[in-house]
Every structure is written in C-alpha cells, then in structure tokens.
C-alpha cells in the first residue's frame, strides 16, 4: 500500500495557498486557478518552498505558467508513470520491509478510513483464501477464521503471496501474536502475481482472493495481467475477489493533480506505486470478471471492489 506519501505531498501543496478552481481538463491534464495579485505572489513563493523540501513537488510544478491576467495555469502535460520491474520491486520492498508499517499503517491510515475499509472487506473472506501482496501482514489480524474446517463462516486456509522475502519475513513475525485456529493451513509463497499465479495454482483453487494496494506497484499493464491471473485461479460464480486499491480521485482537481504527479511520486518516495489507476476499467476489461459492489473513500483516492468471475 503506497498511497500515503502521495497524499501527504498533495496536502502540502493545498496548504500553500487558497485559490479558486476555474476549470479543469483531464484530457489535457491542466487546471486553471484564479488568484489576486497578492495571493499569486504568495502562492509562487510557497510552491517553491514546498518544492525545495520535496523533490516530487518540485517536479510537479516545474512548468507552472503565470498568465498576464493574474491567472495561474498548470500547463505541464502529465508524464507517463511506468511500473518498476519485478526485480526492482523485490529489492525495493526488501529494503522497506522493516519500516513499512510506520509509513503505510497507523494513525494516518486510520484517519483516511483505510483501516476500517480493510476490516469491512476482509471480514467477507471465506474458505480457501489467497492474498496477493501480503507485504508485512497488515491484513492478517482482520481476517475472520472459520469455526471449523468444513464451516463456511470464515477462512479455512490462507495462502500468502509476495515477491519480497523481506516483507513476508515481517508478516511471519506477526503470525505468532495472532489467535488462529490450528486447522487453518497457512502457507507463504514467493511469486510474481502478474505472471505466475496460473503456474503456481490449479484453476479455480480459491474461494476468495484478496489484494490490498498492490495493483498500483504493478503498473497499468501488470495490474491487468494480475487481474487476469486472479480470474484463472478463483472459483467461478461462487468465488470472490476482494480488492482495495489506489485510484484516480473522483474530484477533478485532485484527479488532475494525481495525473501530474503519478510519475514523480512513484519515483520519489512512492515505492513505485502508480496512484492514478482506473481500477474499475481494468476489472471491466478482464474477461469474465464482474464488479458486484464498489465503494470509494477519501474522494475516490482509494476504492474497494467485490468481484466475481463467470
């Protein structure tokens, strides 16, 4: 999960000044803001100040243009946000593993509604469950485990998959503190979820597949590939795919800001996360996959999906 560093950067910019949004265009990735002479000067100074503290902000506002009629236009075209490679992801997350929870968990995540969204969604996991991108195990304590090996009231087995051994090591350490029934079989698997699920598991192996904030790290192409892989190993009709993912905001200003900063934020502190994905469309474009329910949080900066495969 990689949204928080991006959100913090956004709020830094917003707090630099007050302004009025005149128009926005996602097609041209531009925003027009109106400020008076005094505010305009303050805004430019504060943007420079924020930029000096964060390379990401400096990159974002590199092409700011001030018009003659005291308007401000974000005229930079949005750079393409490319995914990091599987090898880069492995090395990067091995490095972040020990301190990952400090950045992407805790009070900030809770204030954004992320923890509540996790709990609500993961309580719906049933039967044989596969979690993609288990990371440090932030989800583990939120699962509801079945009352017996044959009951359909919770998780009966849990397969935890990640590309980073370092992250899975942190997750393994969390298991010791959890009250998990002895009959629940737990396995860790190191694999690339964009290409190896169909090789690792038989078709329709799982009743539930869970992914929280991993698709963004895979990039747009990788995210689509991962969803296709999931659809191969989840049970048809009765199985469910449960997702919470970063996404492009439904707020036009925030969405345009994400478009402008997706590439630099992924590079500077975003751990490779492409934050402005259209996950809904990715799901719709995946053969046989259908959205049963969708919810958005924090103006759509992240969304949850319940999907089934036909």
TrEMBL record:
Family annotation (InterPro entries): Methyltransf_25, Methyltransf_Superfamily, SAM-dependent_MTases_sf
Lineage: Eukaryota, Sar, Stramenopiles, Ochrophyta, Bacillariophyta
Leader sequence segment: 1-18
Domain of life of the organism encoding this protein: Eukaryota
Gene3D superfamilies assigned: Vaccinia Virus protein VP39
Keyword Protein transport: no
Pfam family, one: Methyltransf_25
Domain Methyltransferase: 130-236
Protein name (database record): Methyltransferase domain-containing protein
A molecular function (GO) term: methyltransferase activity
Organism of origin: Chaetoceros tenuissimus
Keywords for the protein's UniProt record, in alphabetical order: Signal
Keyword Signal part of the UniProt annotation: yes
């Amino acid at each position: 999960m990689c949204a928080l560093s991006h959100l913090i950067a956004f709020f830094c910019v917003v707090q630099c000044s007050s302004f009025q949004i005149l128009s926005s265009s996602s097609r041209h990735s531009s925003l027009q803001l109106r400020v008076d002479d005094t505010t305009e000067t303050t805004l430019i100074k504060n943007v420079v100040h924020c930029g000096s503290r964060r390379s990401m902000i400096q990159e974002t506002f590199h092409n700011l243009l001030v018009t003659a009629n005291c308007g401000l236009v974000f005229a930079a075209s949005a750079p393409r946000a490319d995914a990091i490679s599987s090898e880069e992801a492995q090395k990067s997350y091995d490095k972040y593993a020990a301190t990952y929870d400090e950045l992407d968990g805790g009070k900030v995540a809770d204030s954004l509604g992320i923890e509540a969204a996790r709990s609500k969604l993961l309580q719906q996991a049933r039967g044989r469950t596969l979690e993609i991108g288990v990371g440090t195990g932030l989800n583990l304590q939120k699962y509801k485990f079945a009352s017996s090996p044959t009951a359909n009231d919770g998780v009966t087995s849990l397969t935890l998959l990640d590309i980073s051994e370092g992250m899975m090591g942190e997750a393994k350490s969390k298991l010791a503190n959890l009250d998990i029934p002895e009959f629940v079989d737990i396995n860790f698997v190191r694999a690339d979820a964009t290409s190896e699920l169909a090789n690792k598991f038989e078709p329709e192996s799982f009743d539930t597949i869970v992914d929280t904030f991993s698709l963004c790290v895979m990039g747009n192409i990788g995210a689509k590939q991962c969803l296709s892989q999931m659809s191969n190993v989840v049970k048809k009709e009765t199985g469910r795919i449960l997702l919470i993912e970063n996404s492009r905001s439904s707020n036009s200003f925030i969405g345009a800001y994400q478009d402008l900063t997706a590439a630099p934020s992924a590079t500077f502190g975003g751990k490779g996360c492409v934050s402005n994905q259209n996950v809904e469309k990715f799901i719709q474009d995946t053969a046989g996959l259908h959205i049963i329910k969708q919810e958005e949080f924090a103006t759509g900066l992240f969304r949850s999906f319940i999907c089934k495969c036909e």
